[in-house]
Amino acid sequence: MCLFHRSRREFLKGAGALAAVSTLPVSMVELVFADPGQNFTFAYISDSHIQHIAGKNFVRNWDRGLIRAVAETNLLNPKPDFVVFGGDLAQLGTKEELDHGAEMLARLARPYRCVMGEHDYYLDLGEYWSELFGPHHYSWDHKGVHFVTLNSILTYDDWTHKRWPTAQQRMLEMAGLDNPNGSPFMIGDAQRAWLRKDLEAVSKNTPVVVFSHSPIQKIYKGWNFWTEDAEEVQALLKPFDSVTVVYGHVHQIQYNQIDRISFHAVMATAWPWPYPETYAQAKPHMPKLTVPMNRADPFFERDATGWQLIDLDTGRVAMSYNLYNNTNRKVAYNRETGRPEDAAYQSPDKRIPPQSHY
Amino acid sequence: MLKKIAGAVVVVTALAGIAVGLSSRADEFTAEDLKRWEGEYMSVVKIGRELWTSPTLGTNGVACAQCHPNGANTHPETYPKFQQQLGRVIALREMINWCLQNPLEGKPLEAGDARMVAIEAYLAYERRGVPMAPGKH
Fold first, then answer.
1. Who among A2, A6, A273 is closest to B69 (CB)?
2. Distance between CA A103 and CA A105 in Å, rounded?
């Protein structure tokens, strides 16, 4: 029936997209590094939510999203220096899901690093994930940029250790985005102390790029588009001339500027989420700067999902959203206005009807 | 004689009927009635919420709430409307069934199925306060 035809059509479309992306131009924006050889790009894939059904069966739809993102990033030319996976590789944190996801990520032609998501964490508190991908938070330097990966999906100890009779139930409670039994994400005292120390060694004019799963800003608590100690973390980042936070979790285009900190969200490869203001019982908290992604068309199962190519030529993030069934978007820092802006749609008179959500 | 008795029985029965009717007139109800009716509705909304977050409504473990937290992005106030992907005007339940069959890889529900009614009740409840917008894309 229609499922079969749809899969086949999607496959053929996918093949076309692969051909197109193999010639994807990497935009060269103004260079500020002294040595142009230092310019680089990296790819960002996030929120694949690999979901185990039983035995060897996984939800086909989510598998296809990650397989496609990996295949397309492998075709980038010039090649990105590395790839980041932004968290929520699994849906319910099981070994089956993490293994299956890791197998797909292993096909990446470039080195990759991973960010912890709540769906990876709350079954065994990240233990098996660590065996596969390493520490939960870490930093490194690459061509003059200081990168930090945070585990932003921790929460109150009481919720994590005392509230639930089983680890499975804890995982299920946190997996429901709109579940009132969930708990706000946070980075926590210990990790903030680590971050403070880590940043002490970095000069204030070094570009700093932070990867987290949840937004390190407060957007909508009801769906955990939120980090409880966001302000404390922002205070540690503020002294730097150029700071960018890239986050997953929200499955949608978002961007914002708070003081000197730029924020960019990435798309999921699995499915898109509504913008919080479309929930009639919630108050709108979206950054006003954000020009939303197009409303998703469910009849195209990869619509409103995708992956990102990030260019750091200016020391700031210029993010190209590679969208499977939509016109690609590019959101880059504008030096004149001092904030990230969409290359085509930022001005209110340039916006198009599919960008209005209700 | 028998006929008379039969007639009397009919009259008495009718009077009894009126007497019973006096305590439940069609156009009169109490605050308790309102509370009970709302409770009945909310009990179905609750079932709808359980179905919305249930991994067993379809066959692959995917739940409606995975893509539609709090029923968002379902726009119940716009139906019936022209569903451009299908090329005709449909009721919301047809889209609910489309989702059951596609992302959830399950079977559609009959229009009168208590589960369908519960899902419709839940979506309307989450959308309360939003003006009707029939036909809006």
1. A273
2. 6
